[in-house]
Amino acid sequence: MDLAPWLGSLEKKLGKVVKIDFLRRLVLVAVPFLLVAAVWGTYPVWLPMLLNPIGGVAEGMGGDAYGTYGDAYGALNTLFAGMAFAGIVVSIFLQSRELAETRNELQGQKNQLRRQVFENTFFQTLKMLGDAVDTAYYKTQSSSNSHHQGRECINFLCGVLRTYYLNNKDKGSNFVERYEGFYDEMAHRSMGHYFSTLSSVIGYVDDNKFLDLEDGFPVRGFYMDLIRSRLSSDELFLLFYHGLSAKGATKLKPMIERYGFLSGLQDQDKLVDFWIGKYAESAYGDNEAMRAHWRRAQSETASRV
To answer: Domains of the chain: which residue ranges?
Structure first.
């Protein structure tokens, strides 16, 4: 396809646009200049008509009248000086508006860049969380010598926690102590990297002050929803006990409560009301079933006091 004719036509059109823009600017400069020149040049003609509308220049312009006539240019100079000052004031006003618009535009570009940098980092860390799930690995020490990896590994560890550790009083006096024994004995090699990555991703969004700006960008909760949507029921079950344990109570538990990370938690037999009540109600988001368990736990605690 020969683009030469099209490019030639485009060049001509652009040339016309440039010429029109040049002429427009020339007119904007020339018109005020010509107007001032016309007023100045015709001043000797129309001023006598104003002073003596009947006789014009021919009558009443002898002797001292010419001196008065010449001094009248002082009034014209004063008028032009005032107009020049007004023009400077208008020019400063227009420049200040342009500067404000430029500043707002630059701030918008800065916010857009910050958002882009934030989202790039966020989605990279979200991918790291997915990688942490995929690389979770556990090898049993039994004669079967079976291997578990990825979500199947998390499912296997969840099953062991439910069926053995939480039911074994020798592993601790309560569910949280038993979970800590389970984590130290079995899960820390498989899930340590996972919980560390999850805490980092949530913390990155929680600590980012840029998300507090009211500039039309999505709020912090939007990104927390993206993280929460990646968590399976088994991950939430482990997260429930991990947040109550010494491993997660300091950093992870407050963020679980602040952003309702347990809203997808199912009503399961190993989540007793007493431990459900150890979280703030906000941890369960809009999950009414879990909130009902939480309120029951609070009532039972109050009745014991």
So the answer is: 7-57+68-111, 119-304
